Amino acid sequence: MIDFNNGSVFKLTACDPGELVPQVAPFLIQGEQVIFGFRSVRDFVVFTNKRLMAVNVQGLTGSKTDFTTLPYNKIQAFSVETAGSFDRDTELDLWFSGLGQIRLEFKRNVDIRQLSQMIANYVL
Question: CATH classification of 10-123 is 3.40.50.300, yes or no?
Fold first, then answer.
């Protein structure tokens, strides 16, 4: 489960969303498609056309996995921080109704503007 009291949840790099589909496919609803995929060492986040899904692989063997769904219709506000000259990382802050705030930190080479536009299309 995402810890909403923790300032940062994941430090992510972009990956091919297709490589994550087999792991989340059992949880997708009819017509739902994975649009973006981001990965840390073992954990990952996917953005679909319906929701954000954070996947936390637990334990030494990785056999236990937590799938947290955060629907776009619960987002009250979001903020994007673009990369600078020295700080190449970007950040996405999301405030969810009744849940709190999460921060996703992305390593360099993530098009945060494209991600922001996709979220805006579903939220606004």
Answer: no
The domains of the chain are located at 10-123
Helix/strand/coil percentages in the chain, nearest 5: 20, 45, 35
* DSSP β-ladder status, 51-58 and 64-71: antiparallel
**Other C-beta atoms lying within 10 Å of the C-beta of residue 39:** 18
Strand ranges in the chain using DSSP code E only, listed in sequence order: 10-15, 34-39, 44-48, 51-58, 64-71, 75-81, 90-96, 100-106
Question: Between 5 and 51, whose confidence is greater?
Answer: 51
Indicate the pTM of the whole model: 0.86
